[in-house]
Amino acid sequence: MPARRAHPPTVRLRRLAAELRKLRAEAGLTREDVAQRTGINEATLYRIERSRARPQRRTLVGLLDAYGADETHRTDLLALQGGANDQGWLRPYHSELPEEYTAYIGFEAEARTVRNYESLFVPGLAQTEQYATEVVRGVLPVASRKEVAQRVQARMERQAVLTGEHPLQLRAIVDEAALRRAVGGREVMRGQARHLLEMMAEPHVTFQVIPFERGAHVGMTGSFVHMDFPHADDPELVYLDTPAGDLFLESETEIRRYKSMFEHLQSVALGPDDSAGLLAGVAEE
Asked: 247: which strand partners?
């Protein structure tokens, strides 16, 4: 029988893990200390603290006892534990998508702000269906027609976060190369450029372009996404899509580094109005 697919981490599971790491640090305990006091295996504790496993209720109670957590912490963390695997965005076919991608979709769906820099692609949240189809076909040349359709459908569904009463705040920056590469041909790119211009009219969307003439810049090392979340206790997140696999970074040092990179890219890029002018030129070409 095929192996059971693991639940990708959720924002709530990450918050629970972060709070448990913080409580253990405040108690001055090592994982070895906790293992001796509670009988919880060190490897299990590591997985819980890295949001790779959802603790059972009795395990969580044992940890809270060991850390001397107050009643407020107990109530909040036990509530988090109860809903740690909830993913309202999940669709039946998503189980066939890569686990890292489904995790990313879940984080994006709950984010307050997404700051996305792309060097070669139009950001996924801003792609037209035609452009997305050509991108998936080009990046995954051996993918079946069904796999291509599933990925494109997932990408189109993701864009629902930009509509509704409290839409996601999207701050996107692209290198001019992303607009000049003729993905799918001239008509596809013309439609994509016009779609971007329409999106830029929305108050919750900011789109900037770094023109070729600006020369070398920090974004040339690769694309990245930085997310923050509505709840003050939810840890911020940086996502990297690399040839070696997808990476999720959570350390304060890495978060500061990518925040600084994004701010630098904002200063190098054209402002929104000038970026719109460049896009309009691309659409007319």
From this structure: 240
